[in-house]
Amino acid sequence: MPKSIVIVGGGTAGWMTAAYLRAAFKDRIDVTLVESGKVGTIGVGEATFSDIRHFFQFLGLEEREWMPACNATYKLAVRFENWRKPGHHFYHPFEQMPTVDGFALTDWWLRLRPGARFDRDCFVMAALCDEERSPRFLDGSLIDQEYVEGSGVDAVRTTMSEHQGKTQFPYAYHFEAALLAKYLTGYATRRGARHLVDDVVDVSLDERGWIDHIVTKDHGPITGDLFIDCTGFRGLLINKALGEPFESYQEHLPNDSAVALQVPLDMEKRGIRPCTTATAQDSGWIWTIPLQGRIGTGYVYAKDYCDPEEAERTLRAFVGPAAEDAEANHITMRIGRTRNSWVRNCVAVGLSSGFVEPLESTGIFFIHHAIEQLVKFFPGDNWDPRLRDLYNSAIRNVMDGVREFLVLHYQAAAKADTPYWKDTKTRAVPDQLAERLERWQAKLPDSENVFPNYHGLPPYSYMCILLGGGAIPVHPSPALDLLDDTAARKEFQLIRDKATSLVDTLPSQYQYFSQFR
Question: What is the pTM of this model?
Answer without folding.
Answer: 0.96
